[in-house]
Structures are given as C-alpha cells and as structure tokens.
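Marked as duplicate of an earlier ticket. Keeping the data here for the record.
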Amino acid sequence: MSDLAAATPTMPALRGRVQRASASVRAYFLLTKPRVIELLLVTTIPAMVLADGGIPPLDLLAAVLVGGALAAGGANTINCWIERDRDQLMGRTRGRPLPSGDVEPVRALVFGLVLEVAAFALLWATANLLAASLAIGAMLFYVFVYTIWLKPRSVQNIVIGGAAGAVPALVGWASVTGSLAAPAWVLFAIVFFWTPPHFWALALRYRDDYAAAGIPMLPVVKGAASAARQIVAYAVIVVAVSLVLPLTITMSPLYPAAAIVLGAMFVIGAEQLRRNPTPERAIRLFTFSNTYLALLFAAVAVDTFLVG
C-alpha cells in the first residue's frame, strides 16, 4: 500500500502536469497563427457558396474548412520555424512559442509538416486533387517564395508573396466545381491586391520592429509617407477589382452596393492615413481592412442566396 501511495501522483503534481500539457497545446496552437487562419477561411466559405449557387454539402464544407485550416496552420508553423531568429529581434513577435522557448524548433517543423500532409490527404479524399494541390501549392509559395526568398530581400515582398493568402478563395471554388473559373480568379485578385495595404499598415505601425530585424518592408525602406501613398493606390485598385465580380457571374444589386460603400470607407481610411501617417492611424486602418474583407466576402455569400 505504501508503494502504491508513493507511486500515486499527488493533487498538486497532477495539477502541474495538466497545466504543462495545457501550456504545450496552447503553444503549438499559437504556432499556427489562428487569427490569420480565421481570415483565410473567411474567403473560402463565400467562394464555395458562390461556386455552388447556394450552400454546398455540409460534409464538404466542413472538410474544406478543416483541411484549409490545417494547410494554413502548417504553413504558418513552418514560417515561424524559419523566422524564429528574426522574431526574437522584434517586440511584436518575441513572445511567440519558438523565440520564447516554449516549443523546440525541430518539433515545430515536424508539427508543421504533419499538418500539411494531413491537409493534403483530407482535401484530396473529401474534395478533389485540384483543391488539395492548390492548398499545398500556397504553402510552398508562402514558405519558399515569400518567407525565404522575398521577405528578407525585396521591398515588394508582400506584393508578390501575398498571392499565397489569396489561394484559399481558389481552394473553395475548386472544392465545389473541380475546376477554376473567372469568378474564382476575381476573388483571388481581390485578396491579392488587398494584402499590400493591409500588411503595409501593420508594417507602418511596427516599422521600428521590422527595421531592427533587417526586414525591408516598404515603410522601412521608403518611409511612412511613401508607404501611405502606396496604401491609397492599392486601396483604390482593390475597390476597382471588387467591382469586376458582377461582370463574371450573375449577381443582385446588393453586392455592388456593398462593394462601393465598403470600398469608399477603405479608401477614405487610407487617405486619412496618407494625410497623417501615424502609428495609431496605421493600426486603425489595419484593423478596418480585416473588417472590410470579411464584410465584402460576406456580401458575396448573401448575394448568392438572393440570386438563387
């Protein structure tokens, strides 16, 4: 009995194990950058709805959402593994699981690769090979083209590299139709041109961080005023591209009206930043840009139901 009692963990010991396990799970979860995943899925669902002309089969919808989350989470985890040293130099990223030592680098890499394999297998089994290949292709582009090649070398890093974040719209469309069509490419283009003003606003807010890490983001290389002008230009392009969608597929007046109103708010916010490029205005525009994209794609889905 005494041996059994000695081998039985005490309540404080059990509590400690649970807390460590919980902290470990949370650290791996944070490696996937869940807020980024949420934004990517916001573009996937409306693309599926538009492609289907209504609500796609719920099992397919669930599988694509899970598969997309796994693919994006894996890509973000590998990105964290590659950038762990640079992240340690930036106040905004110093607390991430790898710089803080909460996860060992090798385990993080393995975790990211496992997520990618699971994503590909799930999307291929439940949707189709095109959707699965697009998801993995986005990861490869994000890791090799953006993170390794462009980000530390080019001021145009996010302009080109942002294509990876636009692929979920293609994945959503392809998962329903097994092919790609003009509306899918317009949705892709909306996210592609939205990414630079969205990310440059964040980079303007954290310009000192990027400078300390030696990352040539536009506000660091060209200055806040130049970056703010570019943000306005890209905001105008985003609005123009968003108005192309009704030319490629039948839509009700709801979507173009929403695109015009939301676009006007986006451009006005960008212009206010141009006039006064402060960190406070920059983070305000960054926050609104998330809302803009979510509401614009929500309008796509609602409009589809009205037309149907």
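See parent ticket for discussion. The chain has two domains: 22-175, 181-308.
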